[in-house]
């Protein structure tokens, strides 16, 4: 009886191990895709297709947003480029940077009895003729340039610099237009001739003008919107 | 009489469950045949206890040999393209059911004193 019990116990013990092991392996292999029913697989495929479509549309949406962001990026790049161009333009207008280009050089020799108003009139006429930059004896004319002449010594000054003959006025712009403008009949040149002043006017393919020495800093002027 | 074997069954089942041994997927089939062989051996053992022809060592060796041979035959059959697997399932199935019916007969005749020699099911 005892031997029977032990023998049965032994085989049932192993049978138990075998059964549960087999059960668990079967359950895990049952959930394997390979062993699925065709209908179930079809349902799964349908579900996954729907999911994929959703994800695809999400990808499209995200790509659209990416495109937008890149676009706004490039538009800010355009803004920077525009601002840079504007800064360069303003620097030229304010005479803060050296410039070069075609233009004319107007030279008045030592013997001429020039007063500072003659220079101002010449410069006015050059501006009027479309000059983009003007310098007198290689000092750039800016928005704050002033001329002065001593009543006693007739010594001329431009800003804080002494101006001595010969005077060399450079104007950057279309050379022909500048020459024609300044030589208009009854204009400044004709006027100067009355005083025996005969400026020498040369058109030059390329002249270079310096920038102003120091940029003024404004602390009182405020913008009006 | 039956307490220790059932204890063995439950301990074995619990152990198998807790150990969580993963049978490789391609071997699951052969293990299922081995399982059938084991089941057959168990019912054969129970029957032999009732018959009085029980031998512990025969049962234990039969248990393991039957399992191994059944699994191996199924494997060989798969290898050569013959479904020996099905033959094993059939043979063991028939034997299990016939053993169960014999056991049932034995139990019933033991308690109700029915002549076990007339063989109506």
Which descriptors apply to this entry?
heterodimer, A: 225 residues, alpha+beta, Alpha-Beta Plaits, five-stranded antiparallel beta sheet, three-stranded antiparallel beta sheet, B: 121 residues, mainly alpha, 4 helices, 79% helix, 0% strand, globular
SSE layout and pairings?
The complex is a heterodimer of chains A (225) and B (121).
Chain A (H helix, E strand, L loop, with lengths): L1 H29 L7 H56 L5 E10 L7 H13 L4 E4 L2 E2 L6 E3 L6 E3 L2 E3 L3 E6 L2 H8 L5 H6 L6 E10 L16
Antiparallel strand pairs in A: 1-7, 1-8, 2-3, 2-7, 4-5, 5-6
Chain B lengths: L2 H17 L8 H24 L4 H25 L3 H29 L9
Helix pairs in contact in B: 2-3, 2-4, 3-4
Portion of residues in beta strands of chain B equals under 5%
Radius of gyration of chain B: 17 Å
Structural class of chain A comes to alpha+beta
Secondary-structure element string of chain B: HHHH
Please count the helical segments of chain A.
Answer: 5
**What is the strand tally of chain B?**
0
Return Rg of chain A in Å. Answer: 45 Å
Mean of the pLDDT scores of chain A?
86
Q: Give the N-terminus to C-terminus distance of chain A in angstroms.
A: 113 Å
Name the CATH superfamily classification of the domain at 99-209 in chain A: Protein of unknown function DUF881
């Amino acid at each position: 009886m005892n031997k029977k019990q032990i023998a049965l116990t032994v085989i049932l013990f192993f049978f138990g191990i075998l059964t549960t092991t087999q059960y668990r392996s079967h359950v895990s292999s049952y959930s394997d895709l390979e062993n699925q029913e065709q209908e179930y697989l079809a349902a799964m495929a349908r579900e996954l297709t729907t999911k994929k479509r959703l994800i695809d549309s999400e990808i499209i949406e995200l790509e659209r947003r990416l495109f937008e962001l890149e676009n706004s990026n490039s538009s800010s790049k355009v803004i920077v480029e525009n601002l840079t161009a504007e800064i360069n333009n303003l620097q030229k207008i304010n005479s803060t940077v050296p410039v070069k280009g075609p233009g004319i050089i107007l030279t008045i020799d030592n013997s001429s009895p020039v007063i500072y108003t003659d220079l101002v009139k010449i410069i006015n006429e050059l501006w009027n003729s479309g000059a983009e930059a003007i310098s007198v004896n290689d000092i750039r004319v800016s928005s704050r340039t002033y001329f002065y002449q001593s009543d006693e010594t007739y010594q001329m000054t431009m800003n804080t610099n002494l101006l001595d003959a010969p005077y060399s006025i450079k104007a950057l712009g279309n050379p022909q237009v500048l020459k024609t403008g300044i030589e208009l009949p009854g204009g400044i040149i004709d006027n100067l001739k009355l005083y025996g002043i005969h400026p020498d006017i040369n058109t030059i393919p390329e002249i270079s003008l310096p920038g102003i020495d120091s940029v003024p800093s404004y602390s009182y002027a405020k913008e009006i919107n | 009489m039956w307490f220790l074997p059932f204890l063995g069954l439950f301990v074995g089942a619990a152990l198998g469950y807790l150990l969580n041994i993963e049978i490789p997927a391609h071997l699951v089939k052969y293990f299922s045949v081995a399982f059938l062989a084991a089941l057959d051996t168990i019912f054969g053992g129970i029957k032999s206890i009732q018959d009085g022809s029980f031998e512990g060592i025969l049962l234990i060796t039969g248990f393991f040999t039957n399992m191994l041979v059944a699994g191996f035959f199924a494997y060989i059959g798969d290898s050569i393209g013959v479904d020996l697997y099905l033959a094993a399932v059939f043979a063991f199935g028939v034997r299990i059911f016939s053993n169960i019916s014999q056991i049932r007969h034995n139990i019933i005749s033991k308690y109700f004193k029915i002549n076990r020699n007339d063989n109506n099911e």
